[in-house]
Amino acid sequence: HGSRVIAVEPQADLSCAAETSSFHNGFKHGVHFIRGGVYHERSNRLLSATEQYRYGGTVNISKLYEDLEISLPTEVPIFYIGDILAQNRYPLEYNFIKIDTDSLDCELLSEILRLQKRGRLRFTTASLETWAGAGCEDDSFSILLSKLQSSGYEIYRARNDATDDYKHLTSHALTLSRGITIWKFPKMHLEEWKNVGKEWRGEYQML
């Protein structure tokens, strides 16, 4: 009650659907919708849609032409994550930040953590997918996880398939109603994070 949500969505049809849903469910005044892309640096570029992906990884090119026929925009501006989060009311405190870009999750969380260290905002919890983006490759992701733990955050992993739970490394934290298990990583030094291995970095959520 009384919470404020900032939602960013580049696809016009999904943005319209989310805004309409919030209006009909009585959340219109608690949600600020931004139609555009998000980036970890300032950019003057536009984000252009050439395909539309839907749940399950399906591509619907015909849907793109349908949007053009009814004048829905297929090109949107790209916003800097710091400017988006600065639109909240003072103080800039966020209980939960959900990042799901399929490409820049790690870079965005790294920038959010940097902004927090500079006193620009505060956040309690964040989630992201770990499988894509330069910030999730090589040692960059290990460095991010080490910085998060050094800043007082705990690291959890929620797997979405039947692959190895990494039980030798993680401990059971919580089992959700749909059978999804949350696993907790222990506190580790940077070199330990670098030696963990990368097989677990499939399409999983990190909290």
Question: How would you explain this protein's 3D organization?
Answer:
This is Methyltransferase FkbM domain-containing protein. InterPro entries: SAM-dependent_MTases_sf. It comes from Ostreococcus mediterraneus. This protein is α/β, with parallel strands linked by helices and 207 residues long. The protein is built from 6 helices and 13 strands. A 6-stranded mixed beta sheet has the order 8-9-13-10-12-11, covered by helices on one side. A 3-stranded mixed beta sheet has the order 3-7-4. It starts with a strand and ends with a strand.
Produce a short descriptive summary:
The chain has 207 residues and is α/β, with parallel strands linked by helices.
Short key terms for the protein model shown above:
alpha/beta; 6 helices; 207 residues; six-stranded mixed beta sheet
Spell out the helices and strands N to C: EHEEEEEHEHEHEHEEEHE
* Strand percent estimate: 25-35%
Which structural class do you get from the secondary structure elements?
alpha/beta
Helix content: 25-40%
Shape: globular
Low-confidence segments, given as residue ranges, are none
Q: What is the average per-residue confidence, as pLDDT, rounded to a whole number?
A: 78
Number of helices: 6
Radius of gyration: 18 Å
> Could you describe the largest sheet, including whether it forms a barrel?
6 strands, mixed
Number of DSSP strand runs: 13
Strand order of the largest sheet: 8-9-13-10-12-11
Distance between the first and last residues' Cα? 23 Å
Question: In terms of topology, how is this protein built?
Answer:
Blueprint: E1 5-9, H1 12-24, E2 31-35, E3 37-39, E4 46-48, E5 53-54, E6 58-59, H2 61-69, E7 75-80, H3 81-85, E8 93-98, H4 105-117, E9 122-129, H5 140-150, E10 156-158, E11 171-175, E12 181-184, H6 190-194, E13 205-206
